Amino acid sequence: MFNRSQTAFMLGLVLIAVGLAVAFALRVVSFSRYMRLEDLGLDVDPALGPGLFSQVVAPTMAERTIFYASVALVPIGLALLILAWRRRPLVGR
Predict the structure, then answer these.
(1) pLDDT tens track for 28-49
(2) Contact 74/19 with Cβ under 8 angstroms?
């Protein structure tokens, strides 16, 4: 059905799409957490303080790990796309 270059091309596209989608989703979640706490007025609450507020809204270690892993999928996908393009069968040969 598919040859190796087509499979590598499709896998490269999927890796790029998943990597970008997960990275974007994590950034949106982090921003929405910040906006929720800001809407509650906790960014100006003297009991909380700016240092503690920044620690509360900072991405967790798990979020950072998932973000960097998803960003790492993008160059892997690009490498697969380049390999598939170089190994494609030439028409007429």
Answers:
(1) 999 998 898 888 888 787 877 8
(2) yes
